[in-house]
Amino acid sequence: MAGERSFFGPVDPAADAGYDEDHPKRKGFFTDTSICIGCKACEVACKEWNDVPATHFDMLGSSYDNSFSLNANQWRHVAFIEQAKPMGEQESGLRRQAVALGMPTMGPPGSVPPEPGEDDAVDRPDFRWLMSSDVCKHCTHAACLDVCPTGSLFRTEFGTVVVQDDICNGCGYCVPACPYGVIERRKGPEGAKNVGIAQKCTLCYDRLGAGSTPACAQACPTQSIQFGDVEELRERANARVEQLHEAGIMDARLYGNDPEDGVGGTGAFFLLLDEPEVYGFPPDPVVTTKDLPHMYKRAGAAALTLLAGAALAFVGGRR
Amino acid sequence: MVPEATFTSYYGRAIVKPSPWEADIPTYLFAGGVAAGSSLIAAGADLTGRPILRRSGRLAAIAALTVSMVALVHDLGRPERFLNMLRVAKATSPMSVGTWILSSYGPFAGAVAATEVVSMLPSRLRVGPLRLARLVDRPAGLLAALLAPPVAAYTAVLLSDTATPSWHAAYRELPFVFVGSAAAASAGLGLVAAPVHETGPVRRLALGGAVLELVMEHRMERTMGITAEPLHQGTAGRLMRAAKVLTAAGGAASLFAGRSRTAAVVSGVALLAGSACTRFGVFEAGQESAKDPKYTVVPQRERLERGEPVRFRERSGSPAPSPTDPVTGDRSGDHRPAADT
Questions:
Q1: How many other CB atoms sit within 10 Å of the CB of residue B232?
Q2: CA A244, CA A252: separation in Å to the nearest integer?
Q3: Which of A216, A238, A241 is nearest to A227 (CA)?
Q4: Do the Cβ atoms of B30 and B213 come closer than 8 Å?
Q5: What structural domains does chain A harbor?
Q6: How far, in Å, CA of B107 to CA of B62, rounded?
Q7: Which B residues in the span 243-272 are in contact with A, Cβ-Cβ below 8 Å?
Q8: How do residues A280-297 score in pLDDT, each as one tens digit?
Q9: Stretch (H or E) spanning A245
Q10: Is-contact A174 A183, C-beta < 8 A?
């Protein structure tokens, strides 16, 4: 089980965790942000199905994003980014020629009001609106699972990563371990279930067991969130990127689909239209436990240094 | 000065999350170090016939260990479930490894503290099974001392094995900083507690620990790149500066601790305070590094710009990235050397 690749590199995570060969195929999400319309149906469906309490709701002044981030009480989070860029050949609507309605016009003193029919929009910016529904990545090499000291976090037969609420003692180690900042210890609200316990997306483990689609994917009206076998989703994603490139949207790129990346590829991966950090993703995430063997060696050397130092202090010279 | 890094983020929000840990954890880092060092000193004092140093070391170890355990349990989101730590033994989790290290060390540190207390009783009260204490005394003390160094060192791995930028980037040097800090603090306690004629070894240990901590901390900052910044800013910066001054002063004062009891106490107190500042400073710097997306994005972005994303290679040796799917977007073209396709 603890093979060389258990920390890094391409593996089938369920097989690596010791499941038999006849375990189900790895399940995951392909979130195609190019067709996300920001409706937040995924956020709502997730909260409803998983009984995730609402705590953080503020008017944040960050476009339509008022749910802030993925956290213990937010297992799907829709990001909204407003940019002064065109979306491929798409018409933003801002450059449309003004239609003369014959109304009296007014401008700053000295300015000449545009003649009816004249294009007054040439100076207006391009505009595109990026929306992306973020979720736990269900990493091939999941740092949260690696560092969990109680065995509460475990690898399911579907290759996903799930917290067992009745075992977690809220040590909080998974929180700083996650390279994406997904998992968090639930702080409240008062009286909600699982306060003090690490919480995150389960990829609807209960629904998967019953052969159903996770709530968010089921609710997504545009199929921006696609659920299925990771292997097949990766092919579908490659085809979609190719299609977008052909359509002139050269910004399109996949994120998390490479089994050789720093976390061994993610079970939930994304088609993005800009650099990952624009959406709040780390650009080159690495599972921290990749370096753990080296860390133990350094700590071992330090421990021996302390032992030798103390011994020398007592042996060397008698004063 | 390094020029201000430019980077992109999502409304300036953090990417990784800071640990939910509070003062409990740096308190434990400090107390655990004091416990470990004190067990080593007590064993040395026992073997070299320094009874007061032995006694203070053993009692300090159990007191510091008790503080550690209380802090560790208090820090949990569900303290009543602390025993769940013992459900599994998991090498991939430094916290699980640490739990088992403490679980092995604790009983011996406790036993030897108990035998020490028994030896303090008037002889007419040392009756029945209490007379066995003398048999247990030295073996338990030596086993505690052997298990003590991992107690002092593993806490560095505990912090480094995270995505917290300023903790992970420090993983090479942090164990040495922490054992140096543990040696200096416990030796400092010995200097305060024991009379001058018994403190020869702890004076050497104090100086050695202080030098190790200062040298390795300096080297750590130089290898951390941009993630060293939080060690110089705000509360963490003040703590780290205080740690350096106190540790250096304590180390210097230890040179005079053989002649003057006052110098010994000053040195000991300074070293203890310096060690505490180091632990709180490193802890705080990590927390701050997690709250600012800069420390997550900039190092990763720099890797990509250099064309060196972290990628798995079969039996690595060739620096060229493995060929990747050409449709993974402009990243492959922009940041990776062209794959031969």
A1: 13
A2: 7
A3: A216
A4: no
A5: 9-88+117-310 (3.30.70.20)
A6: 10
A7: 258
A8: 999 999 999 999 999 999
A9: helix A230-246
A10: yes
Q: pLDDT below 70 — which residues of chain B? A: 1-5, 314-341
CA A300 and chain centroid, separation:
35
For tokens 């609106």, the residue is A129
Strand partners, A62: A65
ipTM of this complex prediction, to 2 decimal places: 0.91
Q: What are phi and psi of A172, to 5 degrees?
A: 85, 5
What totals of helices (H) and strands (E) does chain B contain, helices first?
A: 11, 0
Residues 6+ apart with CB under 8 A from B56: B38, B42, B189, B190, B193, B194
pLDDT at A122: 53
Q: Please check whether residue A196 is in contact with residue A185, taking contact to mean a CB–CB distance below 8 angstroms.
A: yes
From A29, A28, A25, select the one nearest A12 (Cα to Cα).
A25
Omega before B165 cis (within 30°)?
no
Residue A60 structure tokens: 């944040």
A2, A178, A284 member nearest B300 (Cβ): A284
CB pairs under 8 A between A and B: 309
**How is residue A125 annotated by DSSP?**
P
State how far the Cα of B322 lies from the Cα of A265, in Å rounded to an integer. Answer: 14
Residue of A nearest to B297 (CA): A282
Does residue A93 surpass a pLDDT of 80? no
**Token pair for B341:** 């396709």
For chain A, count helices (H), then strands (E).
8, 10
Quickly state the pLDDT bin for A94 (edges 50, 70, 90).
Answer: low
Domain positions in chain B are 24-295
pLDDT score, position A18: 92
Q: Which residues contact A117 (CB under 8 A, 6 or more apart)?
A: A97, A98, A100
Lowest-pLDDT choice from A168-177, A233-242, A250-259, A308-317 = A308-317
Contacts of B181 (CB under 8 A, 6+ apart): B33, B209, B213, B247, B274, B275, B278, B279
With contacts defined as CB-CB under 8 Å, which chain A residues touch B259?
none
Nearest to A149 among B96, B187, B297 (CB): B96
Going by C-beta distance under 8 Å and a sequence separation of 6 or more, which residues neighbour residue B26?
B276, B279, B280, B282, B283, B284
In the CATH hierarchy, which top-level class contains the domain B24-295? mainly alpha
pLDDT score for B332:
35
The tokens for B337 are 């050397």
Residues 103-142 of B with CB under 8 A from A: none
What is the per-residue pLDDT across B259-274, written as a single tens digit (0 to 9) for each?
999 999 999 999 999 9
